[in-house]
C-alpha cells in the first residue's frame, strides 16, 4: 500500500475535497494521516472549518475508529529557512537573509526552487520516524497542483539533481526523487465525466508515465444518477397522451386537448432526451477512462456542496470501495 498519495486534477473537479476524503478514509482504526497543502489557498482550512493553517502540523479531524488527520500548509519561505538550517546550519544568518529579501527572491524568482522546497518538505514527512522506529504518519496525502503542471512539479528535483552534481542539494534532490518514483508513492487524478477534464486526465497519465512517476487511481467526482436511457425516452415519446393525463391527475393543468398539461409534455420530453444524450456521452468518457488501465472510483455529487460532512460521506464511499485497505 502506498504511503504518499499525491492528488491532482483539473481546476473545478474538486481535488481538494477528494484529497480530504482520502485522508479521512486512510485515517481509520488508529492510523495517522497527514494532509498537506502546497498551493497556499488554505482550501483545507476552509473545508474543515478551522482557522488558517500555520506552518506546523496540526490535528484537524478524527477518523473512524480513532484515527487522526493532521494538516500542514507548507510555506515556501519557511521551508527554505528549514532547508538552510538543516544543510548549512545558518541559524540566525538565515533569518538575516529573510530580512534583506533574499528568501523571497529565492522562492518566487529562482526557477524551480519553490517546487523543490514543497516536494522536499512532503517527502521529509513521509520518511520521518518516531522514537520507536516506526513512521510518524501511516499515510501522507498531498493536495497537489493541477494536472496541467503536476509532472513538472514532481519532476523538478530530477532537474535540480542534474544541475547540482555534488553536495547536499544534489543528495537531497535525489532522495526526494527516490521517494516520488518508488512504490511508496501514488499519483491520483480527479476528473469529472466531462470532455475537457477527461482529456486532461488522459494527457496527465501519459505525461506521468513518461516521466517514470507512479500513477495510482482515477477518482471520477460529482457523478449523477441515471434516470432515463434512450429506450425509456422513446417509450415516453410514444406515450405523450398518457403522460399528459398523468400530469393532469397530478394537478398540473386540465385534461382538455391543448391544455396546460399537454403543453408541458414537449419540454419534459426535451429534457429527457438531453438527459439520455448526457448519459451516452458519459458512457463514452467512462470507456476512455477505463482504457487507462487504472483503478477507477466514482463519487456521487454532494447535494449540499463540498463541506465537512460531505468529506466524511465521500470518505465512507472510498472506504467501501476498498481505497483504504
Topology, element by element:
Layout: E1 4-9, H1 15-26, E2 32-37, H2 43-47, E3 58-62, E4 68-73, H3 76-88, H4 92-99, H5 102-108, H6 113-127, E5 139-143, H7 147-163, H8 167-180, E6 185-191, H9 195-210, E7 215-223, H10 230-237, H11 240-249, H12 260-290, E8 296-300, H13 308-320
Parallel strand pairs: 1-5, 1-6, 2-4, 2-5, 6-7, 7-8
Antiparallel strand pairs: 3-4
Describe the 3D structure.
The protein is of the alpha/beta class. The chain folds into 2 domains: 241 residues, P-loop containing nucleotide triphosphate hydrolases (Rossmann fold); 44 residues. Helix content is 52%, strand content 15%. It has 13 helices and 8 strands. Helix 1 crosses helix 13 and helix 3 packs across helix 5. The protein starts with a strand and ends in a 5-residue tail after the last helix. About 2% of the residues have low confidence. GO terms for molecular function: ATP binding; ATP hydrolysis activity. It holds the Pfam family ArsA_ATPase. It comes from Streptomyces taklimakanensis.
